Amino acid sequence: MVINPTHLAQLTRSSLSWSDAKLRVLAAYRSWLRAAPEIQTMYGMNLPVSALRTKVRQEFERHRFVNQLGVVDVLLTKSNSEFQETLNYWKQLPHILKYFRAEEDPRVRLPDNFMKGFLEGRN
Q: Which residues touch 100 (CB under 8 Å, ≥6 apart)?
């Protein structure tokens, strides 16, 4: 089987309207959700597919209230490149697992002082 690394590549383009951007975002979201089982098996992750899908939803929800069309286009371009890199196995397991680190959660409480953070292993 010949591997074509550009079969997932998409052209960079600007959305014509908010309805066009919405359709593109939903298509990207659905493609991520459909690829979750494949990502789990490719990278040999010890996480259930539901956890991967939940993380995808959290990442999309994080940018839910973006109100500039250009910013949405940039986020879509980044999403498409991440999708291509992930499914072409251009990433390693730590690159995927970085989304599941506790430090990525903004609600995580920061240490009270430097020494406490140092002893916990935080930078």
A: 47, 51, 55
For the cut 50, the answer to whether the pLDDT of residue 30 exceeds it is yes
> Rounded to whole angstroms, how far apart are CA atoms 85 and 109?
32
Count of Cβ atoms closer than 10 Å to residue 85 Cβ: 14
Nearest to 117 by CA among 106, 109, 101, 104: 109
Measure the CA–CA gap between 80 and 55, rounded to whole angstroms: 16
72-123 pLDDT, tens digit per residue, is 999 999 999 999 999 998 899 888 988 888 655 666 667 778 888 788 776 5
- Measuring CA to CA, how many Å separate 33 from each of 26, 52, 55, 59, 123? 10, 8, 10, 12, 33
